[in-house]
Design a protein that fits this description.
This protein is an alpha+beta fold. Helix content is 36%, strand content 26%. The protein has a 5-stranded mixed sheet, sandwiched between helices. Helix 1 (3-24) packs across helix 2.
C-alpha cells in the first residue's frame, strides 16, 4: 500500500471507531471494542486479523519472539486498542516497540475507555530505520521510548 492508501485506511479506522464508541460508549472491556471495530471494518471490506502474531526481530535480524497485535489491517497497519482512563507513556512505548520490532511502518493507538475517544497515529520511516534512528509522523511528536520502560 502506498502512503495515501494507508492514510485513507486510517480515516476509515477513525470513522468506524467513532461509530463503535458512540454506540457502546466507554466502560466495556478492550475485547468488546476490538470485536466491534473488527466487525465494522470487515463490513467496509478491510482485511482484518485479530490477535495476529507478529515476529519481533533483533537489530541483526535474529528472531526474538512474537507479540500479538490487537488488529492487523491489510498486513500494513497495526491497531493497538485500549480501554483505560487515559493513554500513558507506556502505551506509546508499546506501540513504538511493536513498530520497531515488527519492521512495519504504520500504527494507530486508540483508547475507547474515555468519554471522548482518543487516537494517536505513528509512522516509522525507512530512511531513519536504516540508520538505526526513528522518525515519527507529524501526527505524533517524538517520544523517547526508553524513558517509558
Amino acid at each position: 500500500m502506498n502512503e495515501q492508501q494507508i492514510f485513507d485506511l486510517c480515516a476509515v479506522v477513525r470513522e468506524q471507531s467513532l461509530g463503535a464508541h458512540q454506540f457502546l460508549r466507554h466502560g466495556h472491556l478492550e475485547r468488546i471494542y476490538e470485536n466491534s471495530l473488527a466487525n465494522r471494518l470487515r463490513k467496509h471490506g478491510v482485511n482484518v486479523r485479530q490477535q495476529h502474531p507478529l515476529n519481533v526481530y533483533d537489530e541483526d535480524g535474529t528472531l526474538l519472539g512474537e507479540f500479538f497485535a490487537d488488529l492487523l489491517l491489510e498486513n500494513e497497519l497495526i491497531v493497538e486498542l485500549k480501554a483505560c482512563r487515559q493513554l500513558v507513556d507506556e502505551h506509546t512505548a508499546q506501540v513504538l516497540g511493536y513498530l520497531r520490532a515488527s519492521r512495519l511502518q504504520h500504527a494507530m493507538l486508540i483508547n475507547f475507555g474515555t468519554p471522548v475517544i482518543q487516537f494517536r497515529k505513528f509512522i516509522l520511516t525507512d530512511l531513519f530505520r536504516s540508520e538505526g534512528k526513528q522518525s515519527w509522523g507529524a501526527e505524533e511528536p517524538p517520544v523517547d521510548p526508553d524513558s517509558c520502560a
